[in-house]
Specification:
Rossmann fold, about 40% helix, about 270 residues, alpha/beta
């Protein structure tokens, strides 16, 4: 972030896997390193369906941004956002509202540098350093405040972050504080892996992330009920908190195809 950020800048360490770069590799990107690729292969060996889960989350994000833009939301805050993809948030939003403002938030040097070079190319798009656990610093960032008016409805997108934050970091409190800072009419968008139906993979996946990323805590493999708590104080938009592929699918028949995935997603509106 800018001058308000007291934390030291992140150091580029290509020997340690990074979630954003791992997602880039899963999606067929080229902005990743050997450590990222090796980490992904270890995860896929346990749960090969994770590739489908990542792709479904990306597709959900596109659908929800389009939906919210049609609802009149014209400012978006993308937290935990990864590396640039084929269809980024600002491109989707501006296909509906040409003047939509988008702020991407990341805390990795590679993501920040690539994002600023490829995405922050006009006055309505910015890439700032931050994360959901430091919401006060984030919302005070001058670049963010130049584009996001806190007195107007904002869409906050958190699709690849919360499932990597352990309970001991109290992400529920951080999300609640972020919600409280938003204007009435704002929306919170969350996609999160849940393990209700697949408890057998929770511990192995958690162990791999803890070992490889050296930051995955003791308790981040959440159930549906635990993830639903992030929406406390808000009103879920239809169809509620469902598997990502079932959230307003473009092709209902394709959404019913059999596959073993467990990413759930929802959108909630702040009503008061």
């Amino acid at each position: 972030m800018s001058g308000t950020d007291r934390r030291p800048p992140p150091r580029l360490d290509t020997s340690t896997p990074n979630v954003a770069r791992m997602l880039d590799y899963i999606l067929g990107g080229k902005d990743n390193f050997a450590a990222d690729r090796q980490a992904v292969e270890q995860i896929l060996a346990i749960a090969p369906e994770i590739k489908n889960m990542v792709e479904e989350t990306e597709a959900f994000l596109g659908r929800v941004v389009r939906h919210l833009a049609h609802e009149g939301i014209d400012q978006f805050l993308a937290l935990g956002w990864g590396l640039p993809t084929r269809e980024n948030v600002h491109q989707v939003a501006r296909s509906v509202i040409p003047g939509a403002c988008v702020v991407y938030v990341a805390d990795d040097p590679v993501v920040l540098s690539h994002g600023r070079a490829l995405l922050a190319t006009d006055g309505a798009t910015a890439v700032v350093r931050g994360d959901v656990l430091h919401q006060d610093e984030l919302m005070a960032d001058p670049e963010l405040r130049a584009l996001i008016d806190p007195d107007r409805p904002t869409a906050v997108l958190i699709t690849n972050a919360l499932q990597f934050i352990p309970d001991e970091d109290n992400p529920h409190k951080s999300v609640a504080l972020l919600r409280d800072s938003l204007a009435v009419g704002s929306h919170l968008v969350i996609a999160h892996a849940v393990f209700d139906d697949h408890p057998e993979v929770a511990d192995p996946i958690t162990a791999v992330y803890r070992r490889l990323l050296n930051r995955y805590g003791e308790r981040a493999a959440r159930t549906r009920r635990e993830v639903l708590r992030f929406f406390d104080g808000m009103e879920l938009v239809e169809p509620g908190f469902v598997y990502a592929r079932h959230w307003r699918p473009d092709n209902p028949l394709a959404a019913q195809r059999p596959a073993r995935t467990w990413t759930m997603a929802g959108v909630a509106r702040k009503t008061g």
